[in-house]
Amino acid sequence: MLEKTMFESDELVDEVRAVMRQRLQRLGAGAYACLSTAEGQLAVTTLDDQDKGARYSALSSALLGLCETFCKEAIGESSGEACFSSGKGHAVLMRIELNGQLFQLCVVSSTGNNMATVLRETRDMGSSVKRHIESGSTNTMPY
Fold first, then answer.
1. Cα-flanking dihedrals φ and ψ of residue 76, to 5°?
2. 128 near 18, Cβ under 8 Å?
3. Each residue of 40-51: b (16+ CB within 10 Å) or e?
4. What's the helix, strand, coil split of the chain in %, to 5?
5. N or C: which end of the chain has fewer CB within 10 A?
6. The sheet that has 32-37: what strands, in order across it?
7. What pTM does this model have?
8. What are 4-34's pLDDT values in tens digits?
9. At 42, which helix (H) or strand (E)?
10. Which residues does 15 contact at the CB level (< 8 Å), separation at least 6?
11. What backbone torsions phi and psi does residue 30 show, to the nearest 5 degrees?
């Protein structure tokens, strides 16, 4: 299982997935999230299809890297977030640091939410996941 390589135990993976799913409830049906290394290796996904989660993690890693480079060159400062919108939905990519290692969080939602809501929920999910992982908790508490 890919997820086990990133975290200490299957129990922690399940707990982080539960934290992510809890945050996703605010975005409604069809929303999903992937947490992966900065290099694009899947750590945790709320998708049932792990292969899709792994593919989305790799794609979002490359895309966030390009966005960071573009911002650094065009604006003069790297950005740790990227937002995308289409006629069918929104996606937010966000860089987060967990125990000194860079990870990225990708949250996707339908157009039933506005982009600002998806961005806010992604930031809040990132904070919740960070607190949970860095506390070393093995108890799924609501955040």
1. 95, 5
2. no
3. bbbbbbbeeeee
4. 50, 25, 30
5. N
6. 42-45, 32-37, 101-110, 89-98, 81-85
7. 0.87
8. 344 567 888 899 999 999 999 999 989 999 9
9. strand 42-45
10. 132, 137, 138, 139, 140
11. 90, -15
